[in-house]
Design goal:
This protein has 173 residues and is α+β, with helices and mostly antiparallel strands. The chain has helices at residues 60-70, 150-172, and strands at residues 81-84, 88-93, 96-101, 104-109, 113-119, 126-133, 138-144. The protein has a 4-stranded antiparallel sheet with strand order 1-2-3-4. A 3-stranded antiparallel sheet has the order 5-6-7, covered by helices on one side.
């Protein structure tokens, strides 16, 4: 019987050499050079043609309205729970649960939520909400309360909001 010495698998690009490395994702492919078709000698562009008029810039109000139309607005069909601190926020409404931290947003629809868990420390101001999805994954978000009595109050408010949504989804199935 023969035993080989050395590495059995080819070297893999590791996170130690590339900070953008994500396990499980293959590295990007090199850009392929696109060949342009050959241009005929008598196909010279007409330089005497009139230039096309530039489109007028839109007013700021029009662009703000267009941005507002593109961003989905939550439907106000039921109770809403929202808490926030200087960095993040937790929102529960008719669309589902939304976590925000700085510029990142995680949205969970009611169809993918299996359970919602709250965490309140005995002597602290941090309020934690954990969303357990139907795919057996969990995601949590923390919000710092201004005083120690608020997390208990927030937990009670969140329970009433969650009860209304989980009762609604339970009756439709």
């Amino acid at each position: 019987m023969e035993h080989r010495t050395g590495q059995n698998s080819p070297p893999v690009h590791a996170a130690g050499t590339d900070p953008a490395f994500i396990p499980g994702l293959p590295p990007p492919r090199p850009a392929e050079v696109e060949e342009s078709p050959p241009v005929a000698a008598d196909a010279v562009p007409d330089t005497h043609a009139e230039p096309e008029p530039e489109p007028e810039p839109k007013a700021e109000a029009e662009t703000e309205e267009a941005a507002a139309e593109e961003e989905p607005q939550p439907v106000a069909d039921g109770p809403v729970f929202e808490v926030s601190d200087r960095r993040g926020s937790i929102t529960v409404d008719s669309t589902g649960v939304t976590f925000r931290l700085d510029d990142e947003t995680a949205e969970f629809g009611w169809a993918e939520i299996g359970a919602v868990e709250t965490g309140i420390p005995r002597f602290g101001r941090r309020f934690t909400v954990t969303v357990h999805t139907t795919r057996r994954r969990s995601y949590d978000a923390d919000v710092e309360a201004p005083n120690r009595s608020l997390p208990k109050q927030w937990a009670a408010e969140l329970d009433t909001v969650l009860d209304s949504y989980f009762e609604d989804t339970g009756t439709t199935n």
